[in-house]
Design brief:
Rossmann fold; alpha+beta; 2 domains; elongated; Outer Surface Protein A, domain 3; seven-stranded mixed sheet; 20% helix
């Protein structure tokens, strides 16, 4: 019986070849059909050597129709998925990272990108977003910080971001925290500025550089210390108080600052979320003497080294970036215990003036100072 079945299959296959058609049998399914007229028909599939599906698409009248998908080899994760109608992209197009998280989402109409485009990092955070119409960019790409705030706009979604483009205006700054805080606090002179250089700070560093270009001749900034949480040291080797990646500089013109920033970021842009803010502040205090005010510019990343806060004996004025969706109260504690201040886009809080039970607003968050702690009360929304 098996013999005659094999003969029948061989005859059937040869008859298709005679008719000019080719196909593949896969677990009883007929796939990868090429008809006599040369058009592909039905499901086309390819497989990895281990038998896992690598690629699949459906053809109708020789044109892709419906969903086209491809898989990575090392995991059961999609590499991309496209949607076609009569061989033309029509609908969502999605690309993925090897860890299965979404990398890019786009929408197509009649083969042209039309609608939104969103780009994500591997943790699922939106990094850029833009709108398209008939394949053309409408406006600019919005760049987001990890809290979802738009920090600047640019004509591209490029990942190799350049500070020159802040200076020449190509990147449009959407946040004005640093401009606003320095404008409100004109009493700050001979400043020792300590600045977080890790990856999430990119748009705020760009803003600081633009502000410095406009104001450096006033001489308000005497020194700056740039820190990157370890100069690419692996996370498991980071020791509190000795993580490194802290680089001091004497302030001159904005060109030198730009070069110093680029050099320090080349050495490292962080790693895990916590940063060595207080190690950097302490190193700055030890490095310089002839300054009047210490300014720490940081976002809401966790502070790795709160345990060494007691070493800081001078007031620290903390400028908080990216606070629209909340305040990390570690920075409130830094300002409080050093008898400094905390600053956001719209608010300045002098910790020396706080009394038990006082309530204050930072952006949209309302806090109460009680028993040496900051208690979140509500929002102003």
């Amino acid at each position: 019986m098996k013999f005659w079945f094999a003969i029948l299959v061989a005859w059937f296959c040869s008859s298709l070849e005679v008719l000019g058609q080719t196909f593949t049998l896969d677990n009883g399914d007929t796939i990868n059909v090429t008809q006599a007229n040369g058009q592909k028909f039905g499901f086309w599939r390819y497989f990895w050597p281990n038998g896992d599906l690598k690629y699949e698409v459906y053809y109708e009248n020789g044109e892709k129709e419906g969903l086209e998908i491809a898989y990575f080899d090392n995991q059961d994760c999609l590499e991309y998925s496209n949607t076609y109608h009569k061989g033309i992209l029509e609908g969502p197009r999605v690309m993925f990272y090897p860890n299965c998280s979404t990398k890019v989402e786009e929408v197509y109409k009649a083969g042209l990108k039309s609608g939104y485009e969103r780009n994500y990092d591997q943790t699922g955070v939106v990094t850029t977003e833009a709108a398209f119409e008939k394949g053309e960019l409408v406006g600019s790409y919005a760049h987001f910080d990890k809290k979802g705030n738009v920090t600047f706009e640019s004509p591209t979604k490029e990942t190799t971001l350049k500070f020159d483009k802040f200076l020449n205006g190509e990147y449009k700054i959407k946040d004005s925290t640093i401009f606003n805080v320095f404008k409100r606090n004109k009493e700050w002179k001979r400043v020792l500025m300590v600045v977080d250089m890790t990856g999430s700070m990119f748009p705020y560093i760009g803003q600081m550089l633009v502000w410095y270009k406009q104001t450096y001749e006033d001489g308000r900034i005497k020194y700056y210390v740039l820190f990157n949480d370890g100069d690419n040291l692996t996370d498991d080797k980071k020791v509190i108080g000795r993580t490194g990646g802290v680089h001091p500089f004497e302030a001159k013109d904005y060109r030198k600052m730009k070069k110093d920033i680029e050099d320090v970021r080349k050495m490292g842009e962080g790693g895990d979320d916590p940063e060595n803010d207080l190690e950097a502040v302490n190193a700055a205090i030890l490095a310089y003497r002839d300054y009047s005010d210490i300014i720490l510019i940081a976002d809401d990343s966790p502070v790795r080294d709160m345990s060494i806060l007691k070493r800081i004996k001078k007031p620290v004025h903390v400028i908080m970036c990216g606070t629209k969706k909340g305040i990390n109260d570690q920075y409130l504690k830094i300002a409080l215990q050093t008898k400094g201040s905390i600053h956001t886009t719209t608010n300045d809080i002098d910790m020396k003036k706080l009394k038990e039970g006082d309530e204050f607003v930072l952006d949209k968050d309302i806090f109460r100072y009680s028993g040496g702690q900051f208690i979140w009360v509500d929002t102003t929304d």
